[in-house]
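Sample log: Tetratricopeptide repeat protein.
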Amino acid sequence: MKKASQKAPSAAPYASLEKNASSHFSAGRYKNAAEIYKNLLKHSDNPDWRKKLAECYLQRALNMAEKGMPKEAAVLWENYSEWAEPPLAALEAYILWLLSVKNTEKAFARIDRIDAEQLDKNHPELAVWLGFLLVCEYPGIEAHVPHDSAVMLHWQTVRDALEAYRSNRLEHIDDLLKKLPFRSAFRDLRSLLKAQLSLPASIEQAQTLLSKIPDGSPYRPAANALTAYMFQGSAFVEASLQLEDSQRRLIAKARDLSNKQIELLDAIDKQRNNLTDKAQFNLAIRYRELIGNEAASRFCQAMLARYPSGRKDFLKNFAAKDSIESERIQALIHEENHDHDEAEDHWLHYIEALKTQGPESHKKIALIYRHLTQKLPPSLAVEFLMDSLQYDPEDRDSYLKILDYFEQEEPDPEEHAIWLAKGLKHLPKDIEMLVCAAKSAMRKKAFKKAAKYAQDLLKIDPVNTLAKELLFSSHLAHARKLIKTQKFHLVDKELQAAEQLSIDKTLLRQADLIRGFYIWAAEDKDRGLKAIADTLQSMNPGAATAHFQGFIESALMDVPYAPIAKKLPAVKAYELSEPELLHLTESVERYGEQLEKLDVVFKALDKIKAPLKKSMKLLNYGEQALLAWCQTLEQIDHFDLLKQCAKSADGVWEKPIWSYYRVVAECQGDPSRLDITWTLRLQNAIEIAHEQKDSKTEFKIRRFIERSIGFQNPFGFDDEDDFYEDGFDEDESGFDPDIIEGLFDHVPKRNMIKIGKKFEEMMNKSSPEQLMMDVMTKYAERVDPNQLVGLLMDPSFLVAIMMLEAAQSLRIDIDLSFDEIIEFFTDDEPFSFPFDPY
């Protein structure tokens, strides 16, 4: 038997229209919503729809008013009033819209419908505006304000105060204003008049009074004008530009400004929405008599960096054509155009001129030298930093950058020591200089010196944590040395000195460890051995790192390790946790920084090689932990462990960096061992890195491949004459001598000999990869980084750039720029230089 079909009840006939209207309303599309609600109301007088329709008209009216269309706003408000229930919103605004378009008939009719009680209680904002219109003597307004309202009662007092002000009977005004209640519709006028009366005796009091007038008050424009009148200088100009033309001219006259000054204000006002660099430059020249010739000159000089086309007008108006200032101006112009080579040349000429002016220009010379370093690679920047210290020998930052260069970029212990001594001579109490000195002494194992520098630091800054750590490390290092040399009677003194420092408890455990070795070597072997084992296990997150640290410390103090190993848990079938691997990474880095030779670190790693290899096979680590481990292994050249880690990780994470680490490990860090298989693998990794926008990895790989090419003395000359007599020799690196001859053939032989010598010096001083990094640093802003990386793979391009750098460092003009070299190597068409007569 079939079930009787049941017909679903139909939805309300206008539900979808109402939903559509509601959607428009919520989105602020009030016109669309209103049309739908009007259509709905034709079929049903729904109170909710009437309310929504009224709200649509009101919101549209307010929007029109915001757009400066009061006439249209008033019409929409009238539509709103037809659908809305009392009390009507925005009534005050409606009346003011009508008055603003001079529709006084409707405005007055609406005001007439408001009695005194309604005006005082329900329409306080309208009362303020009606009071304002009374003050402004708006035609016919007084007859329509309820005569028994508070506004009219207070109006008589205000009228008397205004009459007293016009008659200059100022002593009566304050008494009259005191009669006005606190919430009077004329309260803002009261603040305005009192502020005016307080001038010029108390500007601060006047500003306080004016600040009480709210932004929406009809008296706010007058308050802004009076505020502008009180300002001086640029603040006056800025404030006056916010005023209407009539107000600004009134204030200008009150300030006794000249016609020329008023003209300048008007000119700025007309162009303020399009006050370009050119407009500002021209205004400064046109009105330089007002500004002052010197101030106008300084301003225009600064503007030339952004408006180089003004140079001719500047030289014409300020007569700087043959002065040294012309060099500075040219330098700024070239910098703005990113032509840093030309800018450097002008700065150096400017410096030479400043040198003739004596000591008063020394600070300026030093600042320019330091400014020049900003766009140079470290190897060239360090020379200017050294030059700057001849003229300002107490600049800490310059010393620190030089020291960092000879420590990190181009390690040179002798130069580092020379500049450290110079820095300490001029800045003996500088914290950062003393930190550098202490670290340097630690590296040289001059522990007493390191301790002295750390103590000097603590005298200056008793809570300096770094100084305490340096002093602590110095005491421990000295204690190790004393144990090793069996001067046991001095060990306890060093350890006590270390323990007395208020320092982290984790660090203090290191002192406990050294004390254990001291007890073992000098007092009681069993007790000492137990102390060593207990401390190692409490300091480390696992057995492997305990063995690692135990071996290194025993080696540093020349103590047998075998007895210690027996007291520690076995690590034969052991797996390192991720925290332990991170701890080991940090330990390797720390010992790597402290020790001149890494053989002890390698032997310590050999002690835990088995658990490390097992852990790498299981690979229960996050990728970041393994990347940190591989980076550290590469830094210390431990390629056996690096190979194990990279091989395992390369099968899990598809990132080009893992291919790089695997190939580096296979080649034992020697690019010359690259075979065709590994080279192709790296080329593929470069493409992936490029696609993944991993520029660091891409450049790292490219640099390794470039090192495999190797180009020593690409010109193949042995002495000065060989540079030209024998020409350039071919080599197998991919370097094309014909390109270099073509680029530099126009340069005189005597200059090329100098450039060639400088080039050889630069090549011998820096590795090819360092030179490539210098080029990347200096020119990255001028060329697309990916394009520059590709160009640097061409040895001929790098040689050409380094020849250009050599010429610039010698201040030799070779009539060839970086951009022209780029164009030569990227343009498929034959290249013609500006100096080519054909």
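Observation: Residues 1-11, 710-733, 828-838 have pLDDT under 50 and may be disordered.
Observation: The radius of gyration is 42 Å.
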